[in-house]
Amino acid sequence: MRIAVLTGAGISAESGLATFRAVDGLWESHRIEDVATPEGFAADPALVHRFYNMRRANAAAARPNAAHLALADLARRHDLTLVTQNVDDLHERAGSPAVIHMHGTLNGALCAACGHRWAAPAVMAPGDPCPACARPATRPDIVWFGEMPYGLDRIWEALETADLFAAIGTSGNVYPAAGFAQHARRRGAECLELNLEASANARDFHRRIVGPASRTVPEWVASLG
Ligand code: BV8
Which residues are noted in the entry as substrate-binding (predicted)? Predict the structure, then answer.
């Protein structure tokens, strides 16, 4: 069976990482949409680096939970494409072999001048020189609002060939990820969401399993055989 899974901040909530909606989209009294944008970075790179340095430290201190581990197990028994909106590395640390980080990663750094990518240091600051071109044009390798998500060709392909699509711990507010269920459903996939409550795109799913991911995801994975 071909399975495509999309995860959001809710799968990492029980690992202690705050979701976006939990902080009602505010951070240091800034709207997330203002901090996580190229304009926000240009306006105040120190603030944006502070935001990501904090999240990088939180992610490093967190541990994968039973939901991350169950998805790593699922990949050993089924043809699984795992897509995450999350920028933490908890899927990898749980043992998932291939993770598509469509919104980038906290552990990645990018040079806006030459496109060079390298492993981000724990703390990044404005003016850090790029290791390749030495220009002070470094930024977190994160996809901000208004920027093109990564891996979309592979994601569309997986959604078009999936027998089963599951969205786990995502509120369905951010596009194009929030359109994935409809895309898969139109091509015949069975669509399921696992969440504490109905998401904003709940109508795109055939079924919903309500509860904390650390319980519902292992149970769901076990039910797939
Ligand atoms: C794009 C990285 C073009 C940053 C993120 C106007 C101007 C410009 C753009 C737009 C616009 N209007 C719309 C857009 C598009 C925009 C968008 O969707 N905006 C929204 C605000 C309306 N999207 C973009 O700009 C994207 N790029 O459109 O490019 C394009 C167009 C078409 C095709 C291709 C390209 C880029 C968006 C990426 C932004 N970057 N992340 C960072 O992380 O700091 S988004 C960020 O927020 C996350 O990555 C994630 O995607 C989103 C948060 O969503 P969730 O993961 O769902 O988290 P949330 O807190 O919302 O929900 C948690 C859920 O978990 C809840 O449902 C809760 O009930 C549940 N939960 C909680 N605990 C548990 C649980 N479930 C189970 N168990 C638990 N224990």
Answer: 52, 55
Gap from CA of 144 to ligand 1 centroid (Å): 10
Separation of 103 CA from ligand 1 center, angstroms? 9
pTM, 2 dp? 0.96
d(CA 90, CA 155): 20
Question: What is the set of domains in the chain, with CATH numbers?
Answer: 1-17+64-103+149-225 (3.40.50.1220), 18-61+106-142 (3.30.1600.10)
Identity of the amino acid at 113: A
Amino acid at position 20, single letter: F
Q: Which amino acids are annotated catalytic?
A: 103
By residue count, the chain amounts to 225
What confidence tens digit (pLDDT) does each residue in 138-163 have?
999 999 999 999 999 999 999 999 99
Q: Using one digit for the tens of pLDDT, what is the confidence trace for 112-122?
A: 999 999 999 99
The DSSP bridge partners found for residue 12 are none
Place of tokens 């899927």: 91
